[in-house]
Design a protein that fits this description.
Layout: E1 27-30, E2 33-36, H1 37-51, H2 55-63, H3 66-78, E3 86-89, H4 95-102, E4 108-112, H5 115-128, E5 134-138, E6 151-157, H6 166-176, E7 177-188, H7 196-216, H8 219-231, H9 235-244, E8 248-255, E9 260-266
Pfam families: Ubie_methyltran
Family: Belongs to the class I-like SAM-binding methyltransferase superfamily. MenG/UbiE family.
Pathway: Quinol/quinone metabolism; menaquinone biosynthesis; menaquinol from 1,4-dihydroxy-2-naphthoate: step 2/2; Cofactor biosynthesis; ubiquinone biosynthesis
């Protein structure tokens, strides 16, 4: 399930692999903009406050529905088992936690820094009868209020790119994992198929913001989301960050022409 080969890729942006931001002193990326580190979390919170109600619809639009297949692969990789406990970081409206529980996984903590997203996730859980074994917690992934060595799996799907200090998130994920526990990240990545690149760019920067305006009444938030994908570290850079955070046996699998990737690491 892993892909450790060295694929050709463009160099990451200056801010991609640094903590907290890597831009000029005291700044970090917010899409293509440099903003003060102290302001990014509130800016990201505003984005997801705005999009929460339409988030699931827009996920289908953004990925042409392919995100559903990616998430199924991701949940399978998590390996749900009744004896395992999951911490779902940036869990938003609940897709990963729901898949975990439906797959026979043990207790899950659905966490997100954004209470608007958690509220949508809670409503979706109630409508699906998936409340048992599921806790909803407002959590900053850079400072997880959970004891060391307390969960068996940590997941983050389409959330790491919105975090200010990505390396700190990875360190926190390792800290809360029990020995033998596994961290998995699903995220949009760097397209490596040359023929796809111009189509992907046109979709991201021309079509997507217009759809955001039409469907969610919010062009700017979806412009940010498209830009944040481009600012995220490439596959090899993220793998190296995971190793720096102390995770071991780091691998990644590319999906759908390298549009997305699943990264895996273990606490040994």
């Amino acid at each position: 399930m892993s892909d450790n080969s060295h694929h050709p890729h463009s160099a990451p942006s200056p801010s991609a692999g640094a903590a907290p931001g890597g831009g000029p002193s005291g700044t970090t990326d917010f899409g293509f903009r440099d903003v003060p580190v102290t302001e990014k979390k509130s800016m990201v919170r505003q984005v997801f406050d705005s999009v929460a109600g339409k988030y699931d619809v827009m996920n289908d639009v953004m990925s042409l529905g392919i995100h559903r297949a990616w998430k199924k692969i991701f949940v399978t990789e998590l390996g749900p088992h009744p004896d395992l406990r999951l911490l779902d970081l940036a869990g938003g409206t609940g897709d990963i936690s729901f898949g975990w529980l439906r797959g026979g996984g043990g207790p899950a903590i659905l966490s997100d820094i954004n209470v608007s997203m958690l509220a949508v996730g809670r409503d979706r859980a109630l409508s699906r009868g998936l409340v048992s074994g599921l806790n909803f917690v407002a959590v900053d992934a850079e400072a997880i209020p959970i004891a060391d060595c307390s969960v068996d799996r940590v997941s983050i799907a389409f959330g790491l790119r919105n975090c200010t200090d990505k390396l700190q998130v990875l360190r926190e994920a390792r800290r809360v994992l029990r020995p033998g526990g596994r961290f998995l990240c699903l995220e949009f990545s760097r397209v490596q198929v040359a023929a796809l690149a111009p189509v992907y760019d046109a979709w991201s920067f021309q079509v997507l913001p217009r759809m955001g305006a039409a469907i969610a009444g919010d062009r700017e938030s979806y412009q940010y989301l498209a830009e944040s994908i481009r600012m995220f570290p490439d596959q090899e850079t993220l793998a190296e960050m995971m190793r720096e955070a102390g995770l071991e046996r780091v691998t990644y699998q590319n999906l759908s022409g390298w549009i997305a990737a699943i990264h895996s690491g273990w606490r040994i």
